[in-house]
Amino acid sequence: MRIALTLEKLDPNRGGAEVATCRLVRELSQRGHEVHLFTTAVAIELPPGVQVHLLRVPWRFVAFRQISFANQIARRLRSERFDLSLAAAGRCFSEDAVWAQSGTVPSGLEGRMRRYYYNPLLRSIRRFQEYYNIRTFVYGALERRCFARRPPPYVIAPSRMVAGYFQQYYRVPPERLRVIPYQVDLNRFSPAIAAKLRASARRRFELDEATVAIACVAQNFRRKGIRPLIETTAELRTRHPQRAFRVLVAGSNARYAAPFEALARKLGCADRVRFLGHCPRIEELYAAADIFCLPTFADPCAIATIEAMACGLPTVTTRFNGASELIESGVTGYIVQNPEQTAELAGAIEPLFDAALRRQIGEAAAAAARRICLDNPDNEIARLVEDLAVCKQREQSAPAGP
After folding, report:
1. What pLDDT, on the 0 to 100 scale, is given for residue 265?
2. Are 114 and 340 in contact (CB under 8 A)?
3. Residue 274 forms beta bridges with which residues?
4. Residue 237: which H helix or E strand, with range?
5. CB-CB contact of 175 with 151 (8 Å)
6. Mean pLDDT of the chain
7. Is 90 exceeded by the pLDDT of residue 62?
8. What pLDDT score was predicted for residue 373?
9. Helix (H), strand (E) at residue 194
């Protein structure tokens, strides 16, 4: 099959959507498909045979870049024939299918409102962001144009939560929706690998065996809930002044971390929080950690959640994370209803200070991740792309209605 993937930049350091797209490119190539990638930049080495089409986007302003990229993609897809074209992160309007790794624009707006829980004025202003923020306006316009088509494109949703958004906002019929969680490499993320790396990783992050390490992996610190995580750290320090614990936050850079470091100093817990920046060998952080916590305000399906579970870490996240659908609260982790409620988040972490409970829940989390990633062939994203190509062919060959 000739399959086209579109994504503005293919760089795994940008986040989970890019990591998942890299995996899909490799899987499709291994299955013998002719893969065409339309993008503006590639930051990794791709398998031989993958054809990269570099598009030039002259604008520096993000909204204008996206308009230019979407229009160029539309022209290229009209001029070439593919068995299936897939928008790997949405925000275009001409592909046959959308991999909704960014959710929907309206649900993203709701998440941005939630994250300003500490400032009612900013929260109110964010309610009208689609009217005054040109980037949000452009993203929303492109998404509406995409789903105004009849029939609408197929949607691959990383969670049932995201599938529900497309039914709610764009009335996408159920038969055009597919739900498939992210897959992670179990040869890289597993309890066995974590056990081998643990001693050296603990030394690297300057952790003694008595210290409970709470890991968080995020790029967008505001959306991923780093502020409530720091506030919860201060709460836990007050509740357990003698307890040795550290919060390790990986992702983003020093410039984005600076205001959160200032908040930790203000709340008196700076000695309990470390910002690590980008960690290329993220499995070492999971190996060093005892708990994984992601108090996100909006996340279609945080791939870091599944990676942590696969490594055998008990996981604490929120109902706004699509990956929470993979967690059985109290068995493989804990699901928080309101991330801004410090008492609730602290109450979910506190039980995991007990080593025996951590071990029990971590083993259950690893088993759950194995079922998601290995024991269920229906979760293979490459196979789903193949199925959608067949669906497209059937749809095109079906006789026209009266």
Report:
1. 97
2. yes
3. 248
4. helix 226-239
5. no
6. 92
7. no
8. 86
9. helix 191-204
Per cent of the chain over pLDDT 90 is: 79
| Long-range contacts, stretch 238-243, CB < 8 angstroms, 24+ apart | 239/346, 239/350, 240/350, 240/353, 243/212, 243/353
CATH numbers and ranges of domains, the chain:
2-180 (3.40.50.2000), 191-373 (3.40.50.2000)
Give me 361's structure tokens. 């829940």
- Identity (one letter) of the amino acid at 160? R
In whole angstroms, give the CA distance from residue 333 to residue 356: 14
How many other CB atoms sit within 10 Å of the CB of residue 396? 7
Give me the pLDDT at residue 71, please.
Answer: 95
Residue 401 makes CB contacts below 8 A (sequence gap 6+) with: none
Helix or strand run (H / E) with residue 240:
none
Backbone angles phi, psi at 53, to 5 degrees: -110, 105
DSSP lists the bridge partners of residue 257 as none
What average pLDDT does range 233-256 have in this prediction?
Answer: 93
Q: pLDDT (tens digit, 9 = 90+) per residue, 75-118?
A: 999 999 999 999 998 788 999 999 999 999 999 999 989 999 99
Tokens of 375: 């024991």
Q: What is the mean pLDDT of residues 37-45?
A: 92
Question: What is the rounded CA–CA span in Å between residue 67 and residue 53?
Answer: 18
Judged against a pLDDT cut of 60, whether residue 401 lies above it is answered with: no
Inter-CA distances, 251 with 78, 94, 220, 285, 293, Å? 38, 32, 8, 11, 14
